[in-house]
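DUF2798 domain-containing protein: structure tokens wanted.
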Amino acid sequence: MPKTKFEDAIYTITMATIMVYGMIVYNVALNTGGVSGQTFLLATHEMIIMVPVAFVLEFFIVGKIAQKLAFTVMKPTDRPQFITYAISICICCIMCPIMSLVATILFKDQHTFGTWIQTWAMNFPMAICWQIFYCGPLVRLIFRTIFRKK
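Answer:
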């Protein structure tokens, strides 16, 4: 896991990019009624806006709040793997409604409270699964490969 601010920035950029891309693909698939090769291409257009938003939110605000929340149920002496999962879940619980709001405002036809709640409700289960089972492990593998201890 990141030890310096530089490493934290690289980790957050990688996580934001992969997490946002996966969630955009999911939302494009929902909006178009299925997944095709076009789905993956269409998802790249929203990344230009959503990745910087996700990075700034997570790096400067949400990461710190999520750690504090996670340590209300975890102890520093708990297994590092469980601490990582707790922090990841807390980040999803905070980021999902915020990013769903941003997406509702920028990309949905209707900008209503109901549209935001529906978007959030549809995204949350996918965000947790994507983070815990795929994105998180992949980003940690990439990070360990880049910042291999010598």
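The mean pLDDT is 96. The chain has four helices and no strands.

Cheers.
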